[in-house]
Design goal:
Blueprint: H1 2-12, H2 23-35, E1 41-42, E2 48-52, E3 59-64, E4 69-75, E5 81-86, E6 98-101, E7 109-113, E8 137-138, H3 144-149, E9 157-160, E10 164-167, E11 171-174, H4 177-193, E12 202-207, H5 217-224, E13 228-236, E14 256-262, E15 270-271, H6 275-287, E16 293-298, H7 304-307, E17 315-323, E18 331-334, H8 335-350, H9 360-363
């Protein structure tokens, strides 16, 4: 199982797909779904989904395919580039990072976020984070004219230079583990569902613009009108010294579910999951002899925060995989967790029968 997940993850991590510019990723996922015999659909925003008919409450099982990054804000006369952040890009992780300027497949341009020469850095500068507005990208151009001749414009997307590296026996390190790992898991679930002969109606969805204030999943949920929504995303690993006080989520110890999320900055949204789905995840993990880690975090927000509010309300649960170093250019996950997450989701879907209780008096 992890062989297919590993192959898809390593390949999808190499495909740039800034939030709002996910087309290359969507085409790569569509090709994989086509090979399984699915007929995928897309909408004007670029969301991608397949619907598997069945009996019982309908399930929207989804993950996002976009990544965070930058937009070119200005091209200087000397050919250097100024950027705007798109998504929660950490400023302290930017200096000296290699980037890819996404002009078009076969025409993308490499560059580097400049870091002031050490020999010219004053003592008072050495421990300061440079604000993103003061940073610039060197892409090898000597003038604005040569940059524009290569296809660069204000508004051109920029991402961390795609990278995917095997690390140790089961771990993967690189760009956009968030959330190409979720995409790889969902593709694995899709492969297993392709031959099923019973179960609930399932919408397998790959959404857009999650990193841009959670824009894509809500319109898709409005179209699909699910009874249940299960969302796949990272869970903050807390097994490194800097994160030890944040929880008990560890790489290689299995998938996780969120019992509480609350952003706390910019938006007051979050998710408290439906009790029937919490019990479903716990019972499924026990039945399949899988570990199930638990998460409760402030500062975390997913698409599910808005999907839960569609129509008369949707029963929701966030599920995911532990990940280290979120939103940096080098994120880390464990393939064991991804494989077990796929198995958990498959088991959960078999247990959503026509009589599955969503009435809270019956479920809690």
């Amino acid at each position: 199982m992890t062989g297919r997940i590993k192959e898809d993850l390593m390949q999808l991590m190499q495909v740039p797909g800034l939030s709002g510019f996910e087309d290359r990723v969507r085409r790569a996922i569509t090709a994989r779904l086509d090979a399984m015999g699915y007929t995928a659909q897309t909408d004007v925003l670029g969301n991608l989904w397949v619907t598997i008919p069945g009996q019982g409450p309908s399930v929207m099982l989804f993950t996002h395919m976009d990544q965070l990054g930058f937009i070119i804000r200005k091209i200087e006369d000397d050919g250097l580039l100024r950027l705007e952040r798109l998504g929660g890009v950490p400023e302290r992780a930017l200096a000296a990072q290699e980037v890819l300027i996404c002009v078009g497949k076969g025409r993308d341009v490499p560059g580097v976020i400049a870091n002031k020469s050490h020999h010219a850095t004053a003592p008072e500068e050495k421990y300061k984070v440079v604000p993103y507005a003061d940073l610039f990208v060197d892409a090898g151009f000597a003038s604005k004219a040569t940059a524009e001749a290569a296809g660069l414009r204000i508004g051109t997307p920029v991402v961390y230079a795609p990278r995917a590296v095997e690390m140790g026996e089961t771990r993967i390190m690189g760009t956009s583990v968030d959330d190409r790992a979720g995409c790889a898991v969902l593709l694995d679930v899709a492969a297993h569902l392709a031959t099923r002969d019973s179960g609930p109606p399932v919408h397998l969805c790959f959404t857009v613009q999650e990193e841009f204030n959670l824009r894509g999943a809500q319109p898709l949920a409005q179209r699909l009108q699910p009874d249940i929504a299960l969302q796949i995303d990272l869970m903050l690993a807390s097994d490194t010294p800097d994160m030890a006080a944040r929880g008990e989520m560890a790489l290689g110890q299995g998938p996780g579910m969120s019992l509480y999320s609350f952003h706390g900055r910019g938006t007051l949204n979050g998710v408290i999951p439906h009790p029937a789905l919490v019990r479903l995840a716990e019972d499924s993990a026990m039945a399949a002899d899988l570990p199930l880690q638990r998460s409760a975090q402030t500062g975390v927000l997913t698409d599910l925060s808005y999907v839960q509010l569609v129509s008369a309300g949707v029963a929701c649960l966030d599920l995911g995989f532990p990940m280290r170093y979120s939103h940096s250019a080098r994120e880390v996950c464990d393939l064991t967790d991804l494989g077990q997450l796929s198995r958990l989701l498959q088991e959960m879907l078999t247990r959503i029968t026509p009589g599955f209780p969503l009435n809270r008096d019956e479920a809690s």
